[in-house]
Amino acid sequence: MAIDTVIIQNKVTDVFGSSVSNFRTQRDIFCFDVDSQKAHDLVKFLKDDADLNFHFLTDLAGIHYPDNEQSKQYAVTYQLHNWIENTRVRVKTYLDGENPEIKSIIDLFLCSNWMEREAWDFYGIKFTGHPQLKRILNMDEMVSHPMRKEFPMEDTGRTDKDDRFFGRTPISN
């Protein structure tokens, strides 16, 4: 039997007050936002509270919103699962576009190691306290973070592809 979303909302609101907001359900997952300074404490609370028991980190992901105001240009989402009650929650926190930085949760969930490295590699989100924050999928020599929306989707300098074979220009006989 799933935990009632009202119980989750009341518990996190009692402890974190105005640091949590925007409670909603999206695609059958209870979601809410938290201030970035409180994100680590909130995830710890969700994991350690005996009634909530969100003991499994399903996913951690970075997001880039270039059209948002400066203080909300990046976000990190945490998806947590309580296997006993089969309940999931998604927690979202927004980060500053100038310096997207948040405290690592690797001390809470060891599996966040690769997830945080991926978010850093692709979005440039720095996870303070991470023991080995380095590229995981891209080359170490890269200076950019390719999932940021300011970068073009295709490398215009490539010489190894011919657009004619991708239907981009007509093939003349």
UniProtKB/TrEMBL annotation:
Catalytic activity: a quinone + NADH + 5 H(+)(in) = a quinol + NAD(+) + 4 H(+)(out)
Top EC class for this record: translocase
Keyword vocabulary terms for this entry: NAD, Quinone, Translocase, Transport
Domain of life: Bacteria
Name recorded for this polypeptide: NADH-quinone oxidoreductase
UniProt KW Cell cycle keyword: no
Entry's EC annotation: 7.1.1.-
Start-end of Basic and acidic residues biased regions: 151-166
The keyword Cell division is assigned to this record: no
Domain NADH:ubiquinone oxidoreductase 30kDa subunit residue range list: 33-156
Region of interest (Disordered), residue spans: 151-173
Similarity annotation: Belongs to the complex I 30 kDa subunit family.
Gene3D superfamilies xref list: NADH:ubiquinone oxidoreductase, 30kDa subunit
Lineage of the organism: Bacteria, Pseudomonadati, Bacteroidota, Flavobacteriia, Flavobacteriales
Role, per record: NDH-1 shuttles electrons from NADH, via FMN and iron-sulfur (Fe-S) centers, to quinones in the respiratory chain.
